Amino acid sequence: MSILGLKKKQPKTFKVKVITMDAEMEFSCEVKWKGKDLFDLVCRTVGLRETWFFGLRYTVKDTYAWLKPEKRVLDQEVPKDSPITFHFLAKFFPEKVEEELVQEITQHLFFLQVKKQILDEEIFCSPEASVLLASYAVQAKYGDYDPNFHKPGFLAQDELLPKRVLMQYQMTADMWEEKITAWYAEHRGIARDEAEMEYLKIAQDLEMYGVSYFAITQNKRDTDLLLGVDAQGLHIYSPNSKLNPNKSFPWSGIRNISYSEKEFTIKPLDKKKDVFKFYSSQLRVNKLILQLCIGNHDLFMRRRKVDSIEVQQMKAQAKEEKARKKMERQILAREKQMREEAERAKEEMERRLFQLQDEARLANEALLRSEETADLLAEKAQIAEEEAKLLAHKAADAEQERQRLEVTAMKTKEEKRLMEQKMREAEQLAVKLVEQSERRLKEADHLKQDLTEAKDAERRAKQKLLEITKTTYPVRNATSADFGYESASTRLDFKDSDMKRLSMEIERERLEYMEKSKHLQDQLKELKTEIESLKLEEQQQQAGLYNLRSERNSAYMSQMAYFEEV
């Protein structure tokens, strides 16, 4: 048997790569596996139990399709690549995320997918809502805001806003980060799953949330409409507006949807309303529309029924899990708070220790300086004490000198007063003496005049007597005449001696008066000189007293300044 005759063996397995929103997985699948087998394997690997929302999507030419669970994987129009690539995505969306999404992994996958659709602008979102959603996304990723850890620029590598929003406003990346951070700081205490749920609760109110759009026509020629399929029903849009539908058909108002090749027929539950028909030219797109319509309608009816036992168990487990996680978060929060408080206390103690060490070091340095200062101050105090004693001694001497000067000044004033009184008395005496001298001079002049007149009278008498004597008496009577003459001459001589004596007395008195007057003038001069010297001495004493007081004040101020410095 030759080798060429052997048939080539078919492989029993094929490789598959499944891409979720946050991971990539590769599986080795058996050839006979159906789509459900691969889907269940992925769900088990992910840990997902709410499988009815999800599916495996693959690309076919210019569109996409969902792997059918009832057919073999290799029998479908999957790519022939190895490994075959599938995307694990949400195929159907809930009406109310908070009530329908039970598992945390389900919430997380929806959160990642919806966030990507908003960033890729598959879902329109206003700038304000975009910033708020971005803040919840940051909370889910980074946890609570910490200004010490989340420094400016920490969001530089994160894609958080649609490009349309970034281009709509002339704002820098730092300005957008500041706006997002302001909202982000308000979400403190929200756990990751809670932040993701808040994100979905806001996103589910957006007009394009959970809507799958398809190009359709109302006739076979023009493509002028859009068909939207979501959890609420079917919606008809204008080609340029995906936000506000022109017409809507809620699942509760649809009686039947029929499909025949390229034509779809929507029959309302109200028979009075017209039947709506539209056309789609691509067979794959038509099959996809039909799948989405059936799946969304089934979920719509399922929501209005009592939950199955499996869902009830899942919700109960999820409730318990949430309660347990909430308890754990509370415990972690308390532990975190206690740890933060302990760290703060530790930091405070370390800071206090460093502070105390610094204070101790400073205290030691201050102690050394104080000891040196104490020695210096002791020396200065001793010097100051000696200076104080010296100053006190000087002050005492100055006080004694001041008292002496005051006594001297008082004596000087008294002596001055007495001198002035003596001077006044001397002046009065001088005036009296002058008056007396003038009076004596006048008397002397009168006496001289009388004397002169007496001498003249005596001379005339003598002359007359001689004449009489010569003519009347003879020589015989010479003896008697001579005797008489002698008597007369004696009398005349006596008168002449009296006049001389009187004149001499007057002259002597005048000379004595002149001497007394001169002596008085000399005394007055001496008195004036003494008064002037007393005045000068008094001025010198006052100047000395002022200088002494100034010196005492300066010494006192210097002493006080020194003691203050000490």
TrEMBL record:
<dbReference type="Pfam" id="PF00373">
    <property type="entry name" value="FERM_M"/>
</dbReference>
<dbReference type="Pfam" id="PF09380">
    <property type="entry name" value="FERM_C"/>
</dbReference>
<feature type="domain" description="FERM">
    <location>
        <begin position="14"/>
        <end position="304"/>
    </location>
</feature>
<dbReference type="InterPro" id="IPR018979">
    <property type="entry name" value="FERM_N"/>
</dbReference>
<dbReference type="InterPro" id="IPR000299">
    <property type="entry name" value="FERM_domain"/>
</dbReference>
<dbReference type="InterPro" id="IPR011993">
    <property type="entry name" value="PH-like_dom_sf"/>
</dbReference>
<dbReference type="InterPro" id="IPR014352">
    <property type="entry name" value="FERM/acyl-CoA-bd_prot_sf"/>
</dbReference>
<dbReference type="Pfam" id="PF00769">
    <property type="entry name" value="ERM_C"/>
</dbReference>
<dbReference type="InterPro" id="IPR041789">
    <property type="entry name" value="ERM_FERM_C"/>
</dbReference>
<feature type="coiled-coil region">
    <location>
        <begin position="510"/>
        <end position="544"/>
    </location>
</feature>
<dbReference type="GO" id="GO:0003779">
    <property type="term" value="F:actin binding"/>
</dbReference>
<dbReference type="Pfam" id="PF09379">
    <property type="entry name" value="FERM_N"/>
</dbReference>
<keyword id="KW-1003">Cell membrane</keyword>
<dbReference type="InterPro" id="IPR011259">
    <property type="entry name" value="ERM_C_dom"/>
</dbReference>
<dbReference type="GO" id="GO:0005886">
    <property type="term" value="C:plasma membrane"/>
</dbReference>
<dbReference type="InterPro" id="IPR046810">
    <property type="entry name" value="ERM_helical"/>
</dbReference>
<feature type="binding site">
    <location>
        <begin position="68"/>
        <end position="71"/>
    </location>
    <ligand>
        <name>a 1,2-diacyl-sn-glycero-3-phospho-(1D-myo-inositol)</name>
    </ligand>
</feature>
<dbReference type="InterPro" id="IPR035963">
    <property type="entry name" value="FERM_2"/>
</dbReference>
<protein>
    <submittedName>
        <fullName>NF2, moesin-ezrin-radixin like (MERLIN) tumor suppressor b</fullName>
    </submittedName>
</protein>
<dbReference type="InterPro" id="IPR019749">
    <property type="entry name" value="Band_41_domain"/>
</dbReference>
<dbReference type="Pfam" id="PF20492">
    <property type="entry name" value="ERM_helical"/>
</dbReference>
<dbReference type="InterPro" id="IPR011174">
    <property type="entry name" value="ERM"/>
</dbReference>
<dbReference type="InterPro" id="IPR029071">
    <property type="entry name" value="Ubiquitin-like_domsf"/>
</dbReference>
<dbReference type="InterPro" id="IPR008954">
    <property type="entry name" value="Moesin_tail_sf"/>
</dbReference>
<keyword id="KW-0472">Membrane</keyword>
<feature type="coiled-coil region">
    <location>
        <begin position="315"/>
        <end position="464"/>
    </location>
</feature>
<dbReference type="InterPro" id="IPR018980">
    <property type="entry name" value="FERM_PH-like_C"/>
</dbReference>
<dbReference type="InterPro" id="IPR000798">
    <property type="entry name" value="Ez/rad/moesin-like"/>
</dbReference>
<feature type="binding site">
    <location>
        <position position="287"/>
    </location>
    <ligand>
        <name>a 1,2-diacyl-sn-glycero-3-phospho-(1D-myo-inositol)</name>
    </ligand>
</feature>
<dbReference type="InterPro" id="IPR019747">
    <property type="entry name" value="FERM_CS"/>
</dbReference>
<keyword id="KW-0175">Coiled coil</keyword>
<dbReference type="InterPro" id="IPR019748">
    <property type="entry name" value="FERM_central"/>
</dbReference>
